[in-house]
Design brief:
Among the domains are: 68 residues, no CATH class; 74 residues, no CATH class; 114 residues, Cytochrome b5-like heme/steroid binding domain (Flavocytochrome B2, Chain A, domain 1, Roll), CATH 3.10.120.10. By secondary structure, it is of the alpha/beta class. The structure holds protoporphyrin IX containing FE (HEM). Protoporphyrin IX containing FE (HEM) binds next to helix 14, helix 15 and helix 16.
């Protein structure tokens, strides 16, 4: 009976008396030991200390593992399969069957185990006055009464088919830029360049025939400044280039300061006060720019004589009319030297080669000297005026 009393007692070691140690093995006499070994108390238990320690360690490890995988909060559920985790299993089965509400509940229970245990702890403490600290599984009925905000989720999930009928979410607004951008991003994208034929790779291009080598013999002679491009004088387009038989304008006869700087078209930088507008103003000024009191008949010898050299005026004839080009020399956009090339002679050919679009009659209207007549005509009408010829 003493042994049975010891078994029924609580798990406590009251006293350990290490009385004898022999050859590394310990004789342990347990006095008033009540750890459930009936024979220990009446019969001194002899075991090796190492065996005891190993056994206790294994027991402790096993208990630790057990408690780790099954915390005290689940002990009640393990003992009563109709509660707690059984609901989880039930919910999982329902979710497999496609029940939307149950699937949400099951998901919540799976994702919120701590909340579940908290709830059941509270309900346990309120419904039962037992001082037992081990949490109990919550009965299914009270849990169902807990308001779980699953209606919105259930509505959305259960109405996937009617999603198009639902009003759009309040944000972003229906006409907002965010919604527009989202919709545009959801629109099918145009075919990407990847669907197009890829550009030829360098490797492919390397398979192509190499470009013909440019040898100097195949090259046409490029125009240079000494031999500029020329436009056909008989064509529809005017020849805006300098005349082919024209030498660089370097000489001006010394009468006026020369302007030697030219551009690609052969125009020169005119000296200040000699722009085309200045020439137009001078023509409208009423000054006598012809150098003669009245129109005269000009013979070829006279024209040749007035070549602008040696203080002589520069006359030039254009289609039978003789002009005193001396005042126009510093105003000529092509340079004074170019214009002097026609001095003392008929400049029509040169003029038309360079700028047939220029209206010389208007530009030199105040510079008219007279008309060209032959020497015979001049002698026959000697003493007569130009008006008499008309
Ligand atoms: C007396 C008559 C002449 C007048 C009224 C005259 C007038 C002009 C005018 C207004 C321009 C500017 C054209 C433009 O901007 O499009 C010009 C340019 C030029 N002129 Fe004369 N010119 C005359 C005679 C000559 C002659 C006889 C030559 C050559 C022998 C010549 C050679 C040039 C050259 C090379 C240019 C610059 C190139 C160009 O503008 O196309 N000009 N001339």
């Amino acid at each position: 009976m003493e042994d049975s009393a010891a078994v029924a007692a609580s798990f406590q070691l009251s006293e350990l008396d290490f009385s004898l140690i022999t050859e590394g093995r310990v004789n342990v006499r347990l006095c008033r030991c009540q750890i459930g070994w009936p024979s220990v108390h009446s019969h001194p238990f002899q075991a090796s200390l190492q065996d005891m320690l190993v056994a206790v360690s294994l027991l402790a490890i096993s208990l630790s593992i057990l408690i780790y995988h099954h915390p005290p909060s689940t002990w009640r559920a393990l003992l009563s399969p109709a509660e707690g985790p059984a609901r989880v299993i039930e919910a999982e089965q329902m979710s497999q069957n496609g029940g939307p509400v149950q699937s949400v509940s099951a998901r919540q229970e799976r994702t919120e185990p701590q909340a579940y245990t908290d709830r059941e702890t509270e309900e346990t403490s309120t419904s039962s006055s037992s001082p037992q600290t081990t949490p109990k599984a919550v009965p299914s009925a009270p849990l169902d009464s807990v308001a779980i905000p699953t209606f919105a989720l259930v509505a959305n999930e259960s109405s996937d088919e009617d999603e198009g009928d639902l009003p759009p979410p309040s944000f972003p607004a229906a006409n907002s830029a965010q919604r527009t951008s989202v919709q545009s991003s959801l629109m099918p994208s145009p075919p990407t360049p990847a669907s197009m034929a890829p550009p030829p790779s360098p490797a492919a291009s390397s398979l192509m025939a190499p470009p013909p080598r440019i040898v100097p013999s195949n090259l046409r002679a490029l125009p240079t400044f000494s031999e500029p491009l020329r436009m056909p004088t008989t064509g529809p387009l005017p020849n805006r280039g300098p005349a082919p038989n024209r030498a660089p304008s370097v000489s001006n006869g010394g009468l006026t300061p020369s302007v030697k700087t030219t551009n690609a078209r052969g125009k020169v930088l005119l000296s200040p006060g000699h722009s085309p507008l200045d020439w137009a103003s001078l023509q409208r000024s009423g000054k006598n720019l012809s150098g003669v009191p009245s129109l005269i008949r000009v013979t070829p010898s006279q024209l040749k004589y007035n070549n602008g050299r040696k203080e002589k005026p520069a006359w030039s004839s254009y289609q039978g009319k003789v002009y005193n080009i001396t005042p126009y020399l510093p105003f000529h956009p092509g340079g004074e030297g170019e214009l002097r090339r026609a001095a003392g002679k008929d400049g029509t050919k040169l003029f038309m080669e360079v700028h047939p679009w220029v209206n010389w009659e208007n530009m030199l209207g105040e510079c008219v000297v007279g008309v060209m007549v032959s020497e015979e005509q001049a002698q026959s009408i000697a003493g007569g005026s130009l008006e008499d010829m008309d």
